Amino acid sequence: MVRITRKGLRLPVILGVAALLSGCVLPEELNADISVRGYRYDAAIKGRLAEPRTIGALAKGQVLPANHEEQMKAQEASALNLPGMTRFSYVGEGRYDFAMTVAGELSEAAPVIGFPNTNGGSNNFLTIRREQDGTVVISSPEVPPKALADLNEVGLGASGKISITFDGKVLESNADDQPANGPHVWNRKNWEDRVVLKFDPNGE
Questions:
Q1: Separation between Cα atoms, residue 133 and residue 179, nearest integer Å
Q2: In this predicted model, what pLDDT tens digit does every residue of 146-184 receive, in sequence order?
Q3: Which of 20, 42, 60, 129 is 20 to 30 Å from the Cα of 110, by its Cα?
Q4: Dist. CA 115–CA 103, nearest whole Å
């Protein structure tokens, strides 16, 4: 088993790179319980999303347009149409609370599932992928240096806990907790924390 150190690994910030719906939002708080048995997955994800442009403007004391909060709240209905989305609620000042549950199976024809965009792609906070060699990789994207600097400038932090239960042989993991039996756990404390887990579901 290869154990990856946390230093130098970066996580889910998609500022200026990808978006949920029509705006760019980031997982300020991200909590996930994921189970993978063979290629069958069950995932429950919840937390708080932040729209950094709004938060940055408020941090700088800028006055937002009169209809800004109304426009932000109007995104709720579209987001609730995403597969598995059970909650998407605007709580004010550029933030949404969300929750989703998704279950399915990774196949050769459909080897990738992402969250919150279940069709995959780059605009996801977490992705589960079945590789051509049969291994499974669960990961979160890297934060671009410019985006990291922008987030630090506006004082937007990152938090949450990701727990992944799986069967098989671990090939790579950078989890904070890596028990021989039981879930691997990541305690998310900043934007540079990243989830990386690779395992062979057919290994022992």
A1: 25
A2: 888 888 888 899 999 999 999 999 999 999 999 988 899
A3: 20
A4: 12
**Encoding tokens for residue 124?**
């996801």
Q: Spell out the SS3 assignment of the chain.
A: CEECCCCCCCCCCCCCCCCECCECCEEEEEEEEEEEECCEEEEEEEEEEECHHHHHHHHCCCCCCCCHHHHHHCHHHHHCCCCCEEEEEEEECCEEEEEEEEEEECCCCCCEEEECCCCCCCCCCEEEEECCCCCEEEECCCCCHHHHHHHHHHCCCCEEEEEEEECCEEEEECCCECCCCCCEEEEECCCCCCCEEEEECCCC
- Residue 131 sits at φ, ψ, to 5 deg, of -80, 165
